[in-house]
Design brief:
- With about 210 residues, the protein is α+β, with helices and mostly antiparallel strands.
- About 20% of the residues lie in helices and about 20% in strands.
């Protein structure tokens, strides 16, 4: 939904320069990595989820998530537009492994599309005081500002700072802002991508375990 009000024409396709150096792997390596996950992670996930299933159902671990190409292009255009508005440069895209809750609804009432399933979400990062940090956007005193998501994960700040400066207690394990507001509310803009299609079930894997 947050794509609809953005102008996708702000994105410029980079010139073709061949494959990204040192980032393309062979099909054989992909198969080996897929099989390693099948052997070392899938049985553990399945055993745990089956053990806590109140209805005795069998759990099939997620093996991939996907987005159509146009959504990815639109997402890149969106985050580049928002970063430009806030006068920051996007450094990287972080792919956080995650899990949908075992519930039909999130606390805010949104529907959980894939209860209990593994997923990932994508967070763009910016440079902040020598660190590479995920960010969100907020209008502060009329200025569109990029702020670190995990304010408490940044060191060396005083508690008597202005609203637009991250605060100082250290919590390296935390992800989201630790302030009076537990979640991003009105007046903030998220640039985190999620809710692609996850499989199985149903799905067709390129490397085995088709469902």
């Amino acid at each position: 939904m947050f794509f609809s009000c953005q102008d996708p024409t702000t994105h410029t396709e980079p010139p073709y320069e061949g494959p990204p150096k040192d980032h393309i792997i062979s099909v054989d390596r992909a198969q080996e990595m897929y099989d390693a996950y099948s052997q070392r992670r899938v049985p553990i996930i399945k055993k745990y989820e089956d053990s806590i299933a109140a209805d005795g159902s069998n759990f099939t671990p997620t093996r991939y998530a996907e987005y159509d190409l146009e959504t990815i292009k639109q997402y890149i255009a969106y985050i580049e537009h928002e970063a430009k508005e806030a006068k920051v440069d996007i450094q990287t895209l972080r792919f956080y492994l995650s899990n949908y809750p075992d519930s039909d609804k999130f606390p805010n009432g949104d529907t959980v599309k894939y209860p209990k399933r593994n997923s990932f979400f994508v967070v763009p990062t910016m440079a902040y005081e020598g660190k590479n940090v995920g960010f969100y956007l907020e209008e502060i005193d009329g200025v569109y500002t990029a702020l670190p998501i995990n304010r408490n994960g940044l060191r060396g700040k005083d508690k008597n700072q202005t609203q637009d400066e991250p605060q100082g207690s250290v919590n390296e394990a935390g992800f989201f802002i630790s302030t009076n507001s537990a979640t991003l509310g009105s007046g903030t803009t998220s640039v985190i991508l999620n809710d692609g299609g996850v499989a199985p079930p149903p799905g067709t894997s390129d490397f085995g375990d088709n469902n």
